[in-house]
Amino acid sequence: MNPPAITIPPVPSQIYLHHTTLRPRPKLIAIGDSITEQGSAHANGWVTSLSIRYSRRLDVLNRGLNGYNTRWGKECLPLILGEILGPSASSAGDGSAHPSDVQSTFISQNHRDEASSCASDHCSDKDQQQQISTELPPYSQYTFLIAFGANDSCLPDGTCSRNHVPLHEYSSNLKDMIQMIQSWTLPLSPNSVSVALLTPPPCNTQVVSTSRHNENVTKLYAEECIQVGEDMNVPVVDLWNGMQIPIDKDGQGSVDDLTKDGDTWKHEYLSDGLHLTPLGNYKMFQLVVQMLERPIHSSQLECNNNMAGNSEYPSGLGLSVTQLPRHYPDHSMVDAENPRNIFRNTD
User: Fold this and answer.
1) What span, in angstroms and rounded, lies between the C-alpha atoms of 287 and 205?
2) For the whole model, what pTM was predicted?
3) Among 92, 95, 107, 116, which residue's Cβ finds the most Cβ atoms within 10 Å?
4) Three-state DSSP class for 94?
5) Domains in the chain, start-ordered, CATH in brackets?
């Protein structure tokens, strides 16, 4: 079975044309191990699929590092944050403006008609600027996905023992990484950065038995990741349960399929017992999108009926592709005679 083609969901023409922004494009950063790194290694990768879905709405960056666990990821995280966010709040201290502080500018729905009128009437720059409304977006400028656990859960006496991290340290490392991200830009807008966790996916221990004799060991790390999400009030994608549900003809899974199809997912989703096939990447993409597009509720836990076990999950991040503005005005809204006008910021 081949994965379905990734497309951008249809948006009503009026929203498509007029819901645009001059604000710096938000960024979605995936941090994890080889399952994340390989998510951009081919056209069917789950990170690649996110780039396609959020084209012109989010810049999707992959910072997956094969073989890494939370211990090594935590040590590398300051370099990633420095690269993407700039100096930390504790080291900056120069009062310089941050990209996330740039005021949002959305093109109003009647702007195209007004722009045409403005061109014919030779209106001033001030009049042109008044036709652009300003408001702060309801989503974060930087969204971090933390996806570790597949290597942490290696057996301490197995062939990959150097990658093993004890369960209690795994939990502590995840919390430290969340706190580091949230505090990096603390003096700036508190909503400029958001974080979500991805549990380790299930593995086929019949194939990778030398490093993982019992797949329930990985399950313990997945459960701990969910607990960390609840403790830190950040959304969690339960890959452990979600990826054991096959994809039906409509590209969706059902909880009933979990018992009916048994171990079908091991052959459809896993290429070597651990890493993902194209179909496995598509399933992971589906589960991540479900979380990204759920509405934001600051402390409410939601039950995701698409997951097995009816576990409770923190809310999503409100990154609905049909509601995010496209970056820069649509070409049909650019005044051919005075193209500069529409790109003028209101600041």
Assistant:
1) 23
2) 0.81
3) 107
4) coil
5) 24-88+141-324 (3.40.50.1110)
